[in-house]
Amino acid sequence: MRSTDPRSKVWKLQVPVSLEYAEMLVLYRDPPRDQVACSECEASNWHEPLVVEWDSGSDKIGDFTHARARIVTKEAVADELLQRFHGFTKGRIEMPDHPKLRRPQRVTKRTPKRVWLPYSGPELVELCVSREIPLLPGSSAIIDWVCQQCGRIIYKGFEGLEEKTTRSHVPREEGKGLYFGEADLSGADFFRPRFTGLTLCTDGARRFIQERAYSNIEFLDVGDIVPA
Predict the structure, then answer these.
(1) How far apart are CA 59 and CA 200, in angstroms?
(2) Does the pTM of the predicted model rise above 0.85?
(3) Does residue 2 register a pLDDT over 50?
(4) At which of 98, 129, 160 does a domain end?
(5) 101 phi and psi, to 5 degrees?
(6) Is residue 220 part of a domain?
(7) Among 170, 164, 173, 168, residue whose Cα is nearest residue 139
(8) pLDDT in tens, 117-175
(9) Is the pLDDT of residue 187 over 80?
(10) What is the pLDDT of residue 33?
(11) Of 69, 98, 129, which one is at a domain's C-terminal end?
C-alpha cells in the first residue's frame, strides 16, 4: 500500500528518555477479577488510575513526562489540546506517599536531584486515548496470536516504523507502516490501533503541538490515513 498525501500521515507520540527532565516509574497493578472480560485471554477493559513514583536524576518537569508506555502531560497542556482536538480524556495520576521520597529538611550537594513528595509541581494528567480503530489490510503488523473467544489480537511487533532512541535513529521504511481508514477515525485526532498500547495522532495535532513548542515530546512517522 502506497503512502497517501503527507498531510494524512500518522505519528506516534513518544516522550524521550532524557537527563534534563524528571521521569516517572509506573507501579503496575493487576485488574480486579470482576473486570476481566474474557476468560480465555484475560483481556480487561479496566483502566486504573496511573500510579507512579518519581525517579531520581532531575527535578525539572517538562510539558510531557516520561512514564514508560503511558503519556503524561501537564493538565494545562491537556486542556489546551482538548479545546481543539478529540480522541482522548484526562486520566488521574496517583503518587503514593513513601518516607524515602519525602523532601529532606536539609538539601546538600550530595542530595540527589528528584521531584520530592509531597508533590508541589504543576497538575499532571494521563493522556488516555478513547478512540481505538482497526488496522487496514496491508499494515506491516506481525500477529502473534488471536483469541478465539473474544477476537483479541496479540501483536508480535510492527515492521518498518520509525524508531528513535538516545543512541540510534531508524527512519520509516518505504512501503511499510500502519494504515487507517479515514472514516474509522470519526473526527478523532488522537487514537490507537485496536488491541495495542500505541498512542498516535494526526498530522494536524502534531503540527499544533510543535507550533506550541511543548517540551519533552517527539513524533515518529509510523503510518498513513487512507481517504475513503
Answers:
(1) 28
(2) yes
(3) no
(4) 129
(5) -105, 5
(6) yes
(7) 173
(8) 999 999 999 999 999 999 999 999 999 999 988 888 999 999 999 999 989 999 999 99
(9) yes
(10) 67
(11) 129
Instruction: Find, among 180, 197, 91, the residue nearest to 189 by Cα.
Output: 180
Per-residue model confidence (pLDDT) at position 172: 97
First to last CA, the chain: 14
Is the separation of the CB atoms in 79 and 214 below 8 Å? no
Domain, as residue range, for 175: 6-13+131-226
| 204-217 confidence digits (pLDDT tens) | 999 999 999 999 99
Q: List the beta strands (DSSP E) in the chain.
A: 9-14, 24-26, 50-54, 64-67, 70-74, 88-91, 93-94, 124-129, 132-133, 141-146, 153-158, 163-164, 169-170, 178-181, 190-193, 200-202, 218-226
* Residues 179 and 135 both lie in one domain: yes
The single-letter DSSP state of residue 136 is P
Q: Which residues share a beta bridge with 179?
A: 224
CA angle 134, 174, 189 (to 5 degrees): 40
Cell 507502516 belongs to which residue? 177
> Which of 30, 34, 35, 39 shows the shortest CA–CA distance to 148?
39
